[in-house]
Amino acid sequence: MRAIETDIEDIIVARYLDLQGEVCPFTYVKTKLALELIESGDVLVIVLDQGEPIENVPRSVKDEGHHISKVERDGTAFKLWIRKV
């Protein structure tokens, strides 16, 4: 499940995970487990609540070497597009 990334709309999402209502550190643990299920180069989209989840998960994902392709606010939640390295 790969696409050449020319624009964010061209991204093929390998996995989608809604983590609204989850608390840290479970938001990152579940994100990490989902990343383990996809191939390098694939994209995981996660939905996070504001506050600690949106502050901590992107930082931890970047620390692991993955790339955040896009962050989008969706009401009180945030969608993150993560490309696995």
From TrEMBL:
Pfam families from the UniProt entry: TusA
Q: Which residues form the UPF0033 domain?
A: 17-41
Which family would the database say this protein is a member of?
Belongs to the sulfur carrier protein TusA family.
Name of the molecule in the record? UPF0033 domain-containing protein
